[in-house]
Design a protein that fits this description.
Layout (H helix, E strand, L loop, with lengths): L1 H5 L4 E4 L20 H6 L4 E4 L5 E4 L4 H8 L3 H5 L8 H15 L3
Parallel strand pairs: 1-2
Antiparallel strand pairs: 2-3
Amino acid sequence: MFRWYKDAALCYAYLGDVNTTDDLAKSRWFTRGWTLQELLAPRDVEFYSSSWNLLGSKISLKNTVSAITGIEAEILESRSLVEVTIAKKMVRSDSFRIAMLPS
C-alpha cells in the first residue's frame, strides 16, 4: 500500500469530524493505523473538512500536523525517507504505534 500512495500525485483526506483547522488535532484521522503511510508516502495530501472545504495541504499545515503527530515538519516536506535516519524512523514509528493503542 505504501508504494500505491507513493505513486499518487495527490491524496485527499476527508476529516468528517473537523470543521476548521482549529479542530484538526481532535480528528480521529490522526489516530488511524493507515494514517502514517497516507501522510508520508504521497507527494501531497489535501485535508478537507466535514463540509468538504479545503483546510490546507500537508505542506501548508506542516507545523500543525507535526505538532499533532510528532513527525518533524522537515520529514513531512521530504519526498525521500532515505534521508531520514534510522533512529528517527524508529522513534517516530514507535511513538505512532503507541498513539494507535485503544484507550
